[in-house]
Amino acid sequence: MQQPLAYRMRPRNLDEVVGQQHLVGEGKIIRRMVEASMLSSMILYGPPGTGKTSIASAIAGSTQYAFRMLNAATDTKKDLQIVAEEAKMSGTVILLLDEVHRLDKTKQDFLLPHLESGRIIMIGATTENPYITINPAIRSRTQIFEVKPLTEEDIKKAVESALHDKERGLGTYPVQLEEKALLHLSRATNGDLRSALNGLELAVKSTPANDEGTILLTLSVIEECVQRKALTHDKDGDAHYDVISAFQKSIRGSDVDAALHYLGRLVEAGDLAIICRRLMVIGYEDIGLANPAAAARTVNAVLAAERLGLPEARIPLADTVVDLCLSPKSNAAYVALDEAISDIRIGKAGDVPDHLRDSHYKGAKELNRGVGYLYPHGYEDAWVNQQYLPNKLKNAHYYKPKSTGKYEQALGQQYQRIQEWKKKNRQTAPLTESDN
Questions:
Q1: In this predicted model, what pLDDT tens digit does every residue of 320-341 receive, in sequence order?
Q2: Helix (H, G, I), strand (E, B), or coil: what is residue 126?
Q3: Which domains does the chain carry?
Q4: How many CB atoms neighbour CB 360 within 10 A?
Q5: Choosing a second label site near 362 at 20 to 30 A (CA), which of 35, 108, 301, 434?
Q6: Which of 137, 174, 168 has the alpha carbon at shortest distance from 57?
Q7: What is the mean pLDDT of the segment spanning 281-298?
Q8: Which helix (H) or strand (E) holds 358?
Q9: Can you tell me the distance from the alpha carbon of 24 to that of 16, in angstroms, rounded to the nearest whole number?
């Protein structure tokens, strides 16, 4: 029985890894570890199909070590013992341990001394956050790396490589993949390369050749094989981004009906990951301080949607869209931050005032560090008039409160109150040094 295409196309070395250049690119951490022959146990976490197993396979292929694969949920302690015995004989074994967050205490206790000695180099793979789900004893003996969803270009590159590879891929088949079909394959799988390659293989092997002897893969064929409909059949392939843009702008404009319409189109296309990411952006970008509770509810709804999966995920998503549409809205906080960043980028920064500098070291006082700092909690209303911004920016005002929600109204009132205190007490502010 032939292995699936995604299995056959696993990288044999780091150069063949698709994406994840923040880990395996030139000068990056995993490549440095391999090139220096200083491998250590690690945990790779991220969404399914993004390359965790591929990285482990590539690491093993770039070394002379034996490579074994186990599953923490289904394989037994005896399976681990077999790997440990092999490591004793051969020196070192690289062990890919899938679902490492499911490792029970018995298996963990057996594994720990082998990780300590370096006899077993464990590469744990998980879709869960390891800082929450993995035992501290394992975490303390591993390095933790996040594996990110692949981009459209990453998926396209891998698909084209599989189509041309005659040894492991589909290069012996007379395939013609339409551009629109390739675009949909790269988008519809939401960064999951395994799904993209397996959908491609199904399309190639289940589509009969035409009269010219060509296996023509059209958009409709790919839609059927990945079970995801394209948003529309527009010739330029822009509908995907147009619908996402319209979705956010409809919520920003408080049009519930339009927002639900665009949500429906994204749900029909199966774009759960895109919907969830966009809703969290909207919660903080467009709702913001006008209604922080709505942003928090959005995060909870996204977590529920991700756990439920489609079609049930549409229920918390619909609740959230209505909530965000009808919520008061404010972008004041992030606009203020962008203005501050803009000043920094054009060189308007300046030195931190001496009275705010760190004074927790010997000799700080002689350098005037921290001298004259006034502790706000020692004053009425936990406020005292002193300068915090560098001299170059001491009169800068970035935050401009909005009055669209009760929460930000209260923040705005406190902000205005502090500005009035500053005006009254300006003459009592501590002296600060001039910027160089």
A1: 999 999 999 999 999 999 999 9
A2: strand
A3: 5-146 (3.40.50.300), 152-226 (1.10.8.60), 239-326 (1.20.272.10), 344-428 (1.10.3710.10)
A4: 7
A5: 434
A6: 168
A7: 95
A8: none
A9: 10
